[in-house]
C-alpha cells in the first residue's frame, strides 16, 4: 500500500474531527473523504471507525456496499466502458481489451502512471451507438469500428507528454 501524503492525512483528520461525537456520521465522513481525495484510503476507514466507535471492518463493509465509494485512487482521465447487453454483442469486450492495452489500466483499475482509470459499467442508455464508452464525460459511440475512443486515448497521451 502506498503511503498517503501529509496533506491527505491532514484532510482526513479535519473531516473526522468535524464529525466526531455526532450521531450517524460514518456515511457523511466517507462522502467527504471521497469528494476530497477522490477515493477512500484504508487509513481514512480506520480513523472514521475510531471516531464513530465502530470497527474498520464495519466501515469497510459500508464502503464496499455503495458503488459511489472507491478504495483506489482514480486516474486523471476516467473511462467507462459499457458491458451492457447491446454493447456486449457488438464487441464491447474487445473494446475494453483495446482500451486496457492502450491505457495500461486493467478493467476497474487505474494505470500505473496514474493517467487512466478504466471502469466497466452497465447500460449507459446509448445502445443505438453500441459499443459505447465514455472518456472524461464525453460519449464515444460505435467505438470499435470508428476507432474514435482509441484515437482519443492517443490524443490524451500526446497532450500529457507535451505538458510533461
Ligand atoms: S448496452 Fe451499452 S449503452 Fe446500452
From TrEMBL:
Cofactor note: Binds 1 [2Fe-2S] cluster.
Stored Pfam families: 2Fe-2S_thioredx
Family, similarity comment: Belongs to the complex I 24 kDa subunit family.
Positions contributing to [2Fe-2S] cluster binding: 82, 87, 123, 127
Keyword Metal-binding: yes
PANTHER family, A to Z: NADH-QUINONE OXIDOREDUCTASE, E SUBUNIT, POTENTIAL NAD-REDUCING HYDROGENASE SUBUNIT
Organism from which the protein derives: Grylomicrobium aquisgranensis
Cofactor(s) in the UniProt record: [2Fe-2S] cluster
Annotated protein name in UniProt: NAD(P)H-dependent oxidoreductase subunit E
Keyword set, alphabetical order: 2Fe-2S, Iron, Iron-sulfur, Metal-binding
GO MF terms held by the record: 2 iron, 2 sulfur cluster binding; metal ion binding; oxidoreductase activity
Keyword Transferase: no
